[in-house]
Amino acid sequence: MGHRDLAVDLGTANTLVYERGRGIVVREPSVVAMDAERGEVYAVGAEAHRMIGRTPATIAATRPLRHGVIADFEVTEAMLRYFLRKASHRSRWTRQRVVMCVPSGVTSVEMRAVEEACLSAGARQVALIEEPIAAAIGAGLEIAQPQGHMVVDIGGGTSEVAVLSMGEIVVEESLRIGGYDLDEAIIAYVRREHGLAIGQPTAEEIKLAIGSAGPLPEELRVEVRGRELVSGLPREVVIDSAQARDALAEPVQAIVDAVRETLDRTPPELASDILTSGILLAGGGALLHGLAERLHDETQMPTYVAASALTCVAEGAGQALEEFEVIARRQALNRPGRSRGGSRARR
Prior knowledge:
With about 350 residues, the chain is an alpha/beta fold. It has 11 helices and 19 strands. The protein has helices at about 45-50, 75-90, 110-120, 130-140, 180-195, 200-210, 240-265, 270-275, 290-300, 310-320, 325-335; strands spanning about 5-10, 15-20, 25-30, 30-35, 40-45, 60, 65, 70, 95-100, 125-130, 150-155, 160-165, 170-175, 195, 220-230, 235-240, 280, 305, 345. It has a 6-stranded mixed sheet, with helices on both faces. The chain has a 5-stranded mixed sheet with strand order 3-2-1-9-10, sandwiched between helices. α7 (about 240-265) packs across α9 (about 290-300).
């Protein structure tokens, strides 16, 4: 009695928890620091994130999700338990119903792993909602109507491209490419072109500061510190936005191609609707400089970034809590198979 249901956007990069009646109450990195000798959780979330690349040999700070799916079940369970308890601020026996967000391209086995991890972490009942649908709801789109909408959700580990109508996904394309792949592309470029080794946090800083999907009105520069491969000594180099754009060219092109391919498989009437409603960009990757303009140039479709790109998936899942029974019932009906006309997931 009196407990509020929760919605969880369990992302590769960050986890957001939405509590009914309160909004987003937890927003922390999806990172767990484990004590290797004891096999115990040392830290979770923001505290663990600060330890990445700075831990002694006995402690490992890792991300238990990879490309939007669970890579380490036990660590994910421990992380979820921490976040659910932090969100509820209630005694351990309080078990809430939880709506969990999942990428649209996950398999039934991967969906089951997410559900089991959440139940093991203390949830009473779990319903799953696909991230593009949650993003559309959080952005305020009227997806229940017989009208086409396109959503491109670029997270830390996956990029989801989906055409929605009447509350369902009609056509989808799921790529195991996200923000961390952009970071890895920058790491590889700096290593290849400058002979400098940098870590993922530094690559992310470069991406946020000067990364772009197209030419900028004014090219930017940033100083980068790392370890020189030849001498092993710390060194500093200057990288400009044109170089960062070269580094990001391949993964950005993959996302653009996925959008074009999805449009190519979209029924004509829904494609006509998208020409009016436009393409919605959500997720942290949507904030890459010039991405909306690049997609507009490539598709000739109106393209815009959601007002709350970083939180609209969690907010949409939170709004979906009002229809928890409907989501759970639909999930039960679809459990034997996940066939969807025209859909395809890249592996």
